[in-house]
Write a structure and sequence with these properties.
The chain has 264 residues and is α/β, with parallel strands linked by helices. The chain folds into two domains: 2-157 and 226-263, TIM Barrel, CATH 3.20.20; 159-224, Chitinase A, domain 3, CATH 3.10.50. It has seven helices and twelve strands. The strands form two sheets. Strands 1, 2, 3, 4, 5 and 12 form a six-stranded mixed β-sheet that branches. Strands 6, 7, 8, 9, 10 and 11 form a six-stranded antiparallel β-sheet that branches. A hairpin with a 2-residue loop joins strand 10 and strand 11 (220-224). The longest helix has 15 residues, at 101-115. The relative contact order is 0.18. Bound molecules: 2-acetamido-2-deoxy-beta-D-glucopyranose (NAG) (3 copies). One 2-acetamido-2-deoxy-beta-D-glucopyranose binds at residues 172-174, 207-210.
Amino acid sequence: MTTTILLLTLLSLHFSTSTTQQTWIKAGYWFTGSSFPIPNIKSGLFTHLICAFAYINASNHELFLFQSDESYISTFASTVKSNNPKVTPLLSIWTENGNMTNLGTLFDEWRVAIDSELKESAHTALYDPSSRVNTDYGINEWVKRGLPANKLVLGLAYHGYGWTLLDHNVNGIGAPAKTGSIIGDGSLSYDAIRKYLRSYNIDPVYNSTYVINYFTFGSSWVGFDDVESIRAKVAYAKEKGLLGYNVWQVPNDHNWDLSKAAGR
Ligand SMILES: *C1O[C@H](CO)[C@@H](O)[C@H](O)[C@H]1NC(C)=O
Ligand SMILES: *[C@@H]1O[C@H](CO)[C@@H](O)[C@H](O)[C@H]1NC(C)=O
Ligand SMILES: *[C@@H]1O[C@H](CO)[C@@H](O)[C@H](O)[C@H]1NC(C)=O
């Protein structure tokens, strides 16, 4: 999960601004694998909408689409533009991480950090006083290695990740836990989280030290970004002089709450 997010964040660096004038980028991914209808995307909340993915054939290096994606990809641009003529539609190309040598190092460091984690971790934490697995560390590392801040967009995740606590009484951030909870591998869309919180009448906690929301339910611990975390992250991106933000993935929002919070 974390490696996927990082890869997507890296992919998002491929933005180019067509004019010298810097505009605040409010980008979001729509993935063909989601069942969310393209006409329902609120394009007005974004400057860029990115259709995912085209792939590269490893043997002849040509771009290709999966046949089942073709009809979506061919209509994506005109459909999102009909709701907001100013939005820039983009096609995202899935690249293997192998060739980004420097990035690969950072990627490996993250993976090592994750693999050695025996406690739940707020996978999208902006800060983490006790480890380097956090967004702020990653951004500072990029800038230190020579990437201008104004070429970076901050990745925002519209999903959370669930863990099973070893002891449900020990449930703060960093509590001992094993991966997976509630469903499958533990990954939950923000929309599913909101419905879950509502049906069990749970109030999530916002922790401003880490910039993460979480809730516990029995022995389940779920970390995610609610509107507070999203607002704080967008404020951070502006403070750092970044180019904007990039959402993975737009259909996981709940009533557009996160996109509205981010866009303010
Ligand atoms: C990526 O490209 C570099 C040179 O440009 C090459 O040495 C390296 O083997 C490539 N890595 C992979 C995983 O293909
Ligand atoms: C990739 O390229 C090879 C060689 O041209 C071709 O045989 C193969 O069908 C291609 N695969 C895809 C998925 O396009
Ligand atoms: C956030 O959680 C950490 C770890 O439990 C705790 O030390 C810290 O005080 C919390 N921050 C806030 C603002 O509550």
